[in-house]
Amino acid sequence: MIGDLARLEAFRGLTSEELDRIARLAFQRTYPAGSFVFQQGEPAQAFLFVVSGRIRVFRTSPAGQELTLHYLGPGDLLGTVAVLQNRSFPATAQAVRDSCVGAVPGGDFRRLVEELPRLKDRILSLVAQRATLFAGLAQELSCLDAHGRVATLLLRSVGPDGKLQLTHQELADMAALSRETVSRILGEWADAGAITLGRGRIVLRNPGLLEELLRE
Q: Which residues, including other chains, have CB under 8 Å from residue 70's CB and lie 6 or more apart?
């Protein structure tokens, strides 16, 4: 468990003694694909982080419409603000493939945050960064057409190697578009040479060309 904790950005810079203290309180749970880690409105009873797998986080409107907020992978945190404030989860987290999630009971975690200044600084910094990122992304997407939304998500999600960290379906969920529309748009960009498509793989080849295509 200490190895899993040390890889988390939230715990970067903590001493081995501090990590050991957290590890003594932590436990892990496995979630088969399709199962819920937590659901919107449930009390946030634990600090959660993804050890392995992939988690979809989404909100459900009163009319029953689902809005995908983001997808999370190993090292990402889940529902941190709700846990810190001892509130209910504002969204639902669902495993999209078999996943393992680490947890620290909420009361224990809140006490650790107060007693370990380095941990408190890291957590508050990450929470602020994520809030700013997603608020800005949501506002930006709301002003764009289909091509603009897909391009924005692609550019925000691409890794250092140019490979996209989202599938066609995940892009569609976050852009509030059909999978067919996303696949058509990606096909256009692949034909133009801006990206390369493979089985379960999207690679950004030429960001400049993609931006030019959006201006046309």
A: 57, 134, 174
